[in-house]
Write a structure and sequence with these properties.
Elements lengths: L5 E2 L1 E5 L8 E7 L5 E6 L15 E9 L2 E10 L2 E8 L2 E8 L11 H7 L4 E4 L5 E5 L3 E8 L5 E15 L18 E6 L3 E4 L5 E4 L12 E7 L4 E6 L4 E4 L4 E5 L6 E7 L2 E7 L10 E7 L6 E9 L12 E5 L2 E5 L5 E6 L1
């Protein structure tokens, strides 16, 4: 990237042999591999219509000229998200039906009502565990250590599994150990899960954060740190395995993606103000020496042929100093890096 143009290049594509399948979900994993969930053309899991029956899918991982497939059967996830997890995968349905009607009388009744809309899939395609990931998922990404990061949009809610508080544990006697409890949480923002689907960190419960997590507008899961860019104030929130490390004001609002490489940053946002043209993005370069973020310059985002994209990106993935984008062709991924 130079000071005048920001050029995308083709990162990779699904082989032609998959052209007859529908790409229900796709991403770039922590190793830079293309991951896709393929279903038959008549499956409606990625459409705004009711899902009539469970469906079968093929998870495909593309690593240069190498690829492997895993068959997965009996899925019931609507608007599925996918990423690799160890030798297998994690899947989540972005939308799910939250409990409604009479209030559950017991914890057992409540657990039975809560939809388990996330699955950990083994390398043989079998489900090893399921968990409730909440409704309104925008991002599903795993990191190099196998933890799962789920970012939510502003309509999200979750029956959160919260740790006990105010109850001292009595070591050696499990009968007296307080159990976690469920609580409905709206606009959860961002949650980090273990590889077994257990909540390890909630953004909204971290007092070091920005306070407002209405929408995790952009997410960057890097090798060492994770960066979130939440609505409404759009700060850049730096997070490690313990929690929030730093919150900085940013010079850009409503960015679709954020790249971070040391002290160099880039924000990818729609160009043109209110009269936005589809596919017209601006890259704003910035830097920080540990203090405030300062703008270095901006430039238009261009395809490899020098033209602007003709439509907004359908999928976006940010990891450290790279951002991958997928436009109207769901088989091709582009990348830009700083």
């Amino acid at each position: 990237m130079n000071g005048h143009t920001a050029g995308l290049r083709v990162w990779g594509a699904l082989p032609e042999c998959y052209s007859g399948r529908q790409v229900a979900s796709s991403t770039i994993d922590a190793r830079g591999r293309i991951v896709a969930l393929l279903v038959d053309p008549d499956v409606t899991c990625a459409q705004r219509v009711p899902l009539t029956a469970p469906y079968d899918a093929t998870a495909v991982v593309i690593d240069g000229n190498d690829r492997y497939e895993v068959e997965i059967h009996g899925l019931d996830l609507r608007f599925p998200k996918i990423d690799t997890l160890g030798d297998g995968f994690v899947l989540a349905g972005a939308r799910c039906q939250m409990p409604s009607g009479p209030v559950a009388r017991t914890l057992e009744e409540l657990e039975a009502e809560i939809p388990h809309n996330a699955r950990v899939i083994g390398p043989d395609g079998g489900t090893t565990s399921t968990f409730h990931a909440g409704d309104g998922i925008e991002h599903l990404m795993t990191d190099a250590s196998g933890e799962i990061w789920i970012g939510y949009f502003d309509e999200a809610s979750i029956c959160a599994l919260l740790p006990p508080s105010g109850h001292p544990r009595r070591a050696g006697d499990p009968r007296h150990r307080p159990k976690p409890h469920r609580a409905t949480m709206s606009t959860p923002g961002l949650i980090r899960w273990t590889s077994h689907g257990e909540p390890a960190w909630y953004a909204t419960l971290d007092g070091s954060g920005p306070g407002s997590w209405v929408d995790c507008y952009a997410l960057n899961v890097g090798l060492k740190y994770t960066w979130a860019y939440p609505y409404t104030a759009f700060p850049l929130v730096e997070i490690d395995k313990i929690g929030v490390r730093c919150v900085r004001r940013t010079p850009v609002r409503y960015a679709h993606g954020v790249m971070v490489a040391g002290g160099t940053l880039a924000f990818v946002a729609s160009a043109g103000g209110p009269a936005k043209t589809g596919g017209h993005y601006t890259i704003t370069l910035a830097h920080t020496d540990g203090g405030p973020i300062e703008v270095s310059g901006d430039s238009p985002l261009l395809l490899p042929d020098g033209s602007r994209p003709r439509a907004w990106a359908q999928r976006k993935v940010c990891r450290d100093g790279r951002m991958w984008m997928q436009f109207d062709d769901p088989s091709v991924w582009y990348v830009i890096e700083i």
